[in-house]
Specification:
This protein has 54 residues and is an all-alpha fold. The protein is built from two helices and no strands.
Length: 54
Amino acid sequence: MREKKIRGMKRKTNTMIKRIEEYTNTFPSTFYHDEYWYMPLPVSQAFINSQKNT
């Protein structure tokens, strides 16, 4: 079965990169309980799982 195409793939990719860069400009210097730093991605799961067809 074919996967549904995602409209605006280039725009959504560029927006995602821009938002990630904005969120990581100030990287936290202190971590909670000496654990990892968590940042949710600013795009939907469907966009992350989609395949780019060229």
